[in-house]
TrEMBL record:
Organism encoding this protein: Oncorhynchus tshawytscha
Role summary: Component of the FACT complex, a general chromatin factor that acts to reorganize nucleosomes. The FACT complex is involved in multiple processes that require DNA as a template such as mRNA elongation, DNA replication and DNA repair. During transcription elongation the FACT complex acts as a histone chaperone that both destabilizes and restores nucleosomal structure.
Similarity comment text for this entry: Belongs to the SSRP1 family.
Biased segments, Basic and acidic residues type: 618-638
Cellular compartments per GO CC: FACT complex; nucleolus
Highest taxon of source: Eukaryota
GO molecular function: DNA binding; histone binding; nucleosome binding
Annotated protein name in UniProt: FACT complex subunit SSRP1
Keyword Transcription: yes
Basic residues bias locations: 601-617, 650-662, 670-679
Xref: CDD domains: HMG-box_SSRP1-like, PH1_SSRP1-like, PH2_SSRP1-like
DNA-binding region: 520-588
């Protein structure tokens, strides 16, 4: 028998919802840590008095009772765990683990027993159900009736709202009312906050970021009272998980963050964090509403009756003493800004500050986010979507949730990468650090010019000219009118040129390769061989499963297969590949897979005919283009000299055709936007 016993996926019920975690039995204590909140229950071994083994909805469970009246229940054990735990309890705790069955008769009358913080409803000395009195929010009485209302949990799919007990009247000779006695027992242990007595101290008009506004904070021994103009909140100290004291980036302001579970409510809004905002320059002299002896006895030197100092120091000191929890401050991380222990970023389109802590990250403030390293599966450094001057920091949790902190300055990249690497978090894009540094380098000279790229596009793609004009039109027109035959001083306007659009040649479609049905079939991979052999087994284990779900399930099973089993299927795949290659070689040697000479010749003839047609059509188009260019001038061209007559132009055209000189195509106009003209 070892010194410790550890169990994973052990469930603890919290106000109607099941939270999983890890339970460890050691010689000194029993420790349970919740996976969701990170809250730790520590039960000293000397305080254990009763241990009960029960069959519950999640297998088997253990109920532990302590000498000071606390009860802890943990479920999710297997039947085979009983012997190990029983022997461990006898050897180390000197406590016997007794088996006790729950009553499942379904009766609704029995005996109500108050045992510490639990109300147990029993039938024939067997428990039917148990109610943690800490979950009771209200207790009302009526004639022979007691009504219990419960705190609601947003994480629970189904919530129990209230339970009513019928209490029969007692004998007439008894003076006590049984209904009031029942209700008094409930109220003594219920989580009903009653402001009895004076507050220990009061902080006036503190600025609160979440929930927003200014509140008076009244500190009571058991709870915290926020009194505002519109809303009031009473926060029991038992709901406080953690305390954070965070300096702002400008080193002139401080944030005091209180993590709550369950959260406080304002309508349909839930606030999991209470954030107080202070200025470092604010000073306060505080006097506690208690005697010095009482302060010393209750808080053991953590507080004194008269205190003075910065306002944020007074608030954090009082909260630390009353809540009895440590205050978390930033660690050794230093940002790019001198003295700053945080990073400016945005989360959900809201700007805020990200603090890398020793055991997690916390984002302040809208909405506040706290991520512990133990619940983070991986992080990723991604390039910013809008500019290269910033990057995004993505955090993915083991539950599958993703948090993206964007618009982080590129100068913070090296510091944040080194911090994450030192904390041994899994980085998805590890190895791209140098590439990222180059990526975030100054690139003002290489900024993208959209207009320039649009102008370069036709040249890059090799497009032909879309607009063609006659570059020698001015010479031909001025040659006939240069002798002064036309009327001097009268200039005829240039005729508009017709646009000639060149037709693009269509590329012949590629013929699809015909599959050779006589060739040997390709071999299957190791995964496909395994899938074919396991498909029927998957169907039998999951009746009614669809084809797509079979593939998904098979993929998950294949990932979980060990290396030795995979090597077996890899060997089968290699054998199938060798068999295929041998069969393919024999098939090709026997003349399979090659086309007949007759088919090849017919393909050559068909190809030759197509080339002749292309040549003819290409030559005809060229002649048309050349002829068209002789008779038209561009739309933008305006002659500065007198134009020749139509007859002279026709004669010049015939002379050029006779000589066989092709019309020059020196200039090609590309598409221009606007009413630009050629100079």
């Amino acid at each position: 028998m070892g010194d410790t016993l550890e169990f994973n996926e052990i469930y603890h019920e919290s106000k109607g919802s099941w939270n999983d975690g890890r339970l460890r039995f050691s010689k000194q204590n029993v420790v349970y840590k919740s996976s969701k909140t990170g809250k730790v229950d520590n039960i000293p071994a000397a305080e254990l008095s009763v241990a009960t083994w029960r069959r519950v909805c999640l297998g088997h469970g253990i109920k532990l009772a302590t000498s000071n009246g606390h009860v802890y229940k943990y479920d999710g054990f297997r039947d085979t765990d009983y012997e190990r735990i029983s022997e461990f309890f006898k050897a180390n705790y000197k406590v016997e683990l007794t088996e006790k069955d729950m009553c499942v008769k379904g009766w609704n009358w029995g005996t109500a027993k108050f045992s510490g913080p639990l109300l147990s409803f029993d039938v024939n000395d067997s428990s039917v159900f148990e109610i943690p009195l800490a979950s009771v929010s209200q207790c009302a009485t009526g004639k022979n009736e007691v009504t219990l209302e419960f705190h609601q949990n947003d994480d629970a799919e189904v919530s129990l709202m209230e339970v009513r007990f019928y209490v029969p009247p007692g004998p007439a000779d008894e003076g006590a009312d049984p209904v009031e006695a029942f209700a008094q027992n409930v109220r003594s242990k219920a989580d009903v906050i009653q402001a009895t007595g004076d507050a220990v101290c009061v902080f006036k008009e503190l600025q609160c970021l979440t929930p927003r506004g200014r509140y008076d904070i009244l500190i009571y021994p058991a709870f915290l009272h926020l009194h505002g103009k519109t809303f009031d909140y009473k926060i029991p100290y038992t709901t406080v998980l953690r305390l954070f004291l965070l300096p702002s980036k400008d080193q002139r302001q401080m944030f005091f963050v209180i993590s709550l579970d369950p959260p406080i409510k304002q309508g349909q809004t839930r606030y999991h964090f209470l954030i107080l905002h202070f200025s470092k320059e604010e000073e306060l002299k505080l006097t506690l509403n208690m005697s010095e002896e009482e302060v010393e006895k209750r808080y053991e030197g953590k507080l004194s009756k008269n205190m003075s100092g910065s306002l944020y120091e007074m608030v954090s000191r009082v909260m630390k003493a009353l809540v009895n929890r440590k205050i978390t401050v930033p660690g050794n991380f230093q940002g790019n800004t001198p003295g700053a222990q945080c990073i400016t970023c945005s989360y959900k389109a809201q700007s805020g500050l990200l603090y890398p802590l020793e055991r997690g990250f916390i984002y302040v403030h809208k909405p506040p986010v706290h991520l512990r390293f133990e619940e983070i599966s991986s992080v990723n450094f991604a390039r910013g979507t809008t500019t290269t001057r910033s990057f995004d920091f993505e955090v993915e949790t083991k539950q599958g949730n993703q948090f993206t902190f964007s618009s982080i300055e590129r100068e913070e990249y090296g510091k944040l990468f080194d911090f994450v690497n030192a904390k041994k978090l899994h980085i998805k894009n590890r190895g791209f650090k140098e590439a990222k540094n180059n990526e975030y380098s100054d690139s003002d000279d290489d900024q993208h010019d959209a207009y320039l790229e649009r102008m370069k596009l036709p040249q890059l793609l090799g497009w032909p000219g879309r607009y063609v004009y006659d570059s020698n039109a001015s010479e031909s027109d001025s040659g006939s009118g240069g002798d002064g035959s036309g009327d001097e001083g009268k200039k005829k306007p240039a005729k508009k040129a017709k646009v000639v659009k060149e037709k693009r040649e269509r590329k012949p479609r590629k013929e699809k390769k015909q599959k050779d049905t006589n060739a040997p079939k390709r071999p299957m991979s190791s995964y496909m061989l395994w899938l074919n052999s396991s498909r029927e087994r998957i169907k039998s284990e999951n009746p009614g499963i669809s084809i797509t779900e079979i593939s998904k399930k098979a993929g998950e099973m294949w990932k979980q297969i060990g290396k030795e089993d995979k090597e077996e299927w890899d060997g089968k795949a290699d054998e199938a590949k060798k068999t295929y290659e041998k069969a393919m070689k024999e098939y090709r040697e026997s003349g399979g897979g090659s086309s007949t000479p007759a088919k090849k010749e017919s393909k050559k003839k068909a190809g030759g005919k197509k080339e002749d047609k292309k040549r003819k059509s290409g030559g005809g188009e060229k002649e048309k283009e050349q002829g068209g260019n002789d008779s038209f001038k561009s739309r933008e061209f305006i002659s500065s000299e007198e134009s020749s007559s139509d007859g002279e132009r026709k004669k010049a055209k015939k002379a050029k055709k006779a000589k066989g000189k092709p019309q020059s195509r020196d200039k090609v106009l590309h598409c221009h936007h606007g009413n630009n003209r050629m100079n």
